[in-house]
Amino acid sequence: AMTTIGDLPEDVLVELLSLLPARDLLRTCRLVCTQWRYVVDLTTLWKRKCQRDGFYRQNLDRSVSDWKIFYMLCHLKRNLIKNPCAEENFQHWTLDDNEGDEWKIEDLPGAHGNNPPDPRVHKYFVTSYGPCFKSQLITLKKEGYWNQLMDEKRPEITVKDWYAARFDCGCRYELTVRLLSEDYIVLEEFHPEPVIIEQWSDARWREISHTFQNYPAGVRHIWFQHGGQDTQYWAGWYGIRVTNTSITLGPQT
């Protein structure tokens, strides 16, 4: 007769423990006994969790070096930019420059504009004839990304932003993304040349995307800033339009 859970065959124990949240496995189950610690550290257990949560694909087998970390990154993965599509007014954004007639929020497609490819996006932020820039500071630890993970695994950091002009006015778009240390020292930066869009453009929404890889150890914050202005100094809101910003960490599943 079986007397304890410890008598279960290893594969059954893997199956059972894989049902538990990762947090409980690492903080509690791992400390129960040497057998449980061994099972919790098994690649098969984390692979099983990936299968259960839909993170597993056959073609990943060769490329994943650590299934536990892979699971944690997939599980944590979400957009770290808050209020990316102007649904909550300017909440979570710091308005660094707010000149001309200031930042404004408008409904898509907007005057002399187009809809972006993603039908779930309904609003955008729009700039005026003076410099308009807004930013967000992301603190990685607050979002669940612990220091050792950032320093040893250096998960890919992917930044995406969408911008568009009005058909009837020229404008400029600028983007700066910085990976910062604990003391806000810049460890790496993505700051492409400003995009100048001429008057009578196609007014299409365009995506800009950048992935940070193999960056230095010590990244604790990500600072994101975008904005611009119109190039014809027209009163009102004829400048660059931005929406659907995202910053995600981890595997591109």
Describe the structure.
With 253 residues, the chain is an alpha+beta fold. It has 2 domains: 5-75, Monooxygenase (Up-down Bundle); 94-250, Jelly Rolls, CATH 2.60.120.260. It is built from 6 helices and 11 strands. It has helices at 10-17, 22-27, 34-40, 43-52, 67-76, 147-153; strands spanning 94-98, 104-107, 123-126, 132-139, 157-164, 171-180, 186-190, 195-197, 206-212, 221-230, 241-249. The strands form 2 sheets. Strands 1, 4, 6, 7, 8 and 10 form a 6-stranded antiparallel β-sheet that branches. Strands 2-3-11-5-9 form a 5-stranded antiparallel β-sheet, with no helix packed on it. Helix 4 (43-52) runs parallel beside helix 5. The longest helix is centred in the N-terminal third of the chain and has 10 residues, at 43-52. The two termini are 44 Å apart. The mean pLDDT is 95.
Attribute tags:
single chain, 253 residues, alpha+beta, Monooxygenase, Jelly Rolls, 2 domains, six-stranded antiparallel sheet, five-stranded antiparallel sheet, 11 strands, 19% helix, F-box-like_dom_sf, Galactose-bd-like_sf, ubl conjugation pathway, ubiquitin protein ligase activity, F-box_only
Outline:
By secondary structure, the protein is of the alpha+beta class. It has helices spanning 10-17, 22-27, 34-40, 43-52, 67-76, 147-153, and strands at residues 94-98, 104-107, 123-126, 132-139, 157-164, 171-180, 186-190, 195-197, 206-212, 221-230, 241-249.
